[in-house]
Amino acid sequence: MDMAPQSPPTAALPPPLVANHRLRLVLFLFLMTAMFMATLDNQIVSTALPTIVGEFGAFERFGWVGSAYLLATSAVMPIYGKLGDLFGRKYVMISAVSIFILGSVLCGFAWSMDTLIAARVFQGLGGGGIMVSIFAVNADLFEPRERARYQSYSSLVIMASGSIGPTLGGTMSDLFGWRSIFLINLPIGALVLAGLIFLLPNRRPDRQPKIDYLGAVLLALASTTVVLLTDGISLFGSLLSWQSFLVLAIGTAAAICWVIVERRAPEPIIPLRLFKDSTFSLFLIVSLMTGGVAIGMVNYFALFLQMTTGLSPSVAGLFFIAVTGGMVVGSLSSGRLISMTGRYKPFVVTGLVLNVLTLLVFSQLHAGTSLVVVGLAMLMQGFAVGLGQQGPVIGVQNSAPRADIGSATGAVTLTRMGGAAIAISVYGAVIAGAMHGVHVPGVADVGALTPQQMAALPQASRAAIADGYARAFEPMFLTAAGFATAGLIAALMLKPVRLPTAGNRKS
Predict the structure, then answer these.
(1) What ranges do the domains of the chain cover?
(2) What is the pTM of this model?
């Protein structure tokens, strides 16, 4: 049987959004600056969280500072993608950046853990629009194979924020206070807005906009209930509580109503016709799982380093440089090879295989493990994530009709961020359950201990706590390996598609 790579039906490409190559590169730099700003805020809080908890208390809400941002980001991504398809990318992205800047100000002036979490939700409403708009604008600027190379640089920016964020967060909170990690977005955001306003053209599609408001609300509600349900133990006391069942019922009803609405909507948020191509459906699964492994792990890597080794926030953050180093190599290599060969499936599969193996290694690390070994494991984790980073976005953008590129991109990015938000809650529940039985003389609640408080304890107590956390992280890493395995199964089912060359594109 002939198993040669398939190429989709093609049609002529429209002219690029910007014809001048130099101006295109300048715009790309502004887009990367916006991406760095938005993704940095998901990472920068990781090592600063102990300082925030030290001021506000409420250690049990550790994960919500991150998951609140991801949840809001996930909920609005399809909406922004559709708005870009209907009205053009420029003004949609400008609005998203403006909301993000205002949210950063609110975070910087929060006076309690509750107000900080609320401000993070508002900030995420802008961050989701930034992420979707950037990938959609890239699709307008570059043809498919050239886009693979430039999106490798986009992936590097995401990876760099994952490395610099924890180090920067710990250092800035030590030197200037934790509020500075949010207020730094003001000058950066102002620069990005200026570039978008004066340099980015607006290509408005030639069709009458009809926004599917009901579909957007139902999708956001369904996404929110999934995350709330995964965190049911900390929110409601049990996954079997009546509140959990109520959330499940609401989410199920919202999902069913969403499908009904999307079938009838003239301009659906996520056109159901996209699901006719198995590439789209499978990459949604891949993105959901890799989001949980790549993004959802950040806060817990930082917690693992600080609670099992006794490292300070700033020093623990330095280990994320190893993650970024691996991501740089993996992303650049796969980006160039995809551009040369036109094939993305082999890199998605290989990345997920390495992810599974690396997470299994992490599950066997103990409190006395050499920091060199930990650093090498983080390097391999970064390489695995970087290798498969670009496949989902490139794959769905190639399979979707041009009129639906924004919606398809938004859906993939939604599932990636949604996977991270879900995973943060799952990991937190696993660790909390494992730490529940850990008791150390002289410590009232080991699970509520911050790294600063731990550093003040006697050596024997610190060692006992470190061992307890190491044992708690073992099932967490195995859970993450399970997510990566599910993504691998979906990736193996992808069709061996070859990307079209310049001058051809699916209509």
Answers:
(1) 21-212+266-492, 213-265
(2) 0.72
